[in-house]
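name: query_chain
kind: protein
chains: 1
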Amino acid sequence: MPESPEVEALARFLADEASGREIRAVDVLEFRTVKTRSAPPAGIAGRTITGATRHGKHVELLLDEGSLVVSLGRHGWMRWLTDSESAGSEHPAEAPPALATLELSGDVALQVTDAGSWVSLGLFVVDSADEVPAIAKLGPDPADPAFSRAQFDAALGGRRKQVKAILQEQESLAGVGNAYSDEILHLARQSPVTHAAALDPAATDRLFEATVTTVRDAIAARSGVPIDQLKAQKVAAMRVHGRSGEACPVCGDTILDLTFSGTSAQYCPTCQNGGVPL
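structure:
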């Protein structure tokens, strides 16, 4: 799942590379991606891209009139094709299919892809990004320099809900998904099944610091990485997520997998639960 560090790197890449380019044509290959039927993506042909920004896990392409918002969903991403390639060029069999293509001036194309078995990606043509319901409901973003401890405490709110679920709840904290929530909890030395209401002040302090540090350090680490390499960079950087059966890089205990409440987590029993497997 795309999360804020990689989506931020994608948005910065598009701001650098796509700004100033005219959208010559839009070809939507999967109609289910179109979420604004009264304003279809084909209608932005002729407009010029003026920038790009991120809202949680969403990318907004700023246009000289309105915006194209891409909700990346669970498996969405983008592919940048230069003049040495073409929108119809062949890609390796494992490469995700393009669901829509924007042909841009300068003989480049921007493809929107989805690697999932079901379409979770969405395209919105809007006047303002907050017209997208999921963006309008986003909580504060830990990547934002203005993100405060008060906002974090409000997100937790003493709730009888597992901390891992709150970290992934976009209405509470924007941009964090399954992978980075595992990394945050490992750094904070906190069990993924602990309820927010059970956190003592010291544990809350650790969790706040781990959330801010994990997100911001990952954004810094992804800066300048080619967008087709961001997923691999993310996977390589994980300490516990996706590392079930491997040794914890902190204590050497075996990282375990846990499935609960419709989600999964990888964690270190010693670092996060007193040496006791969950």
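note: The chain has eight helices and ten strands.
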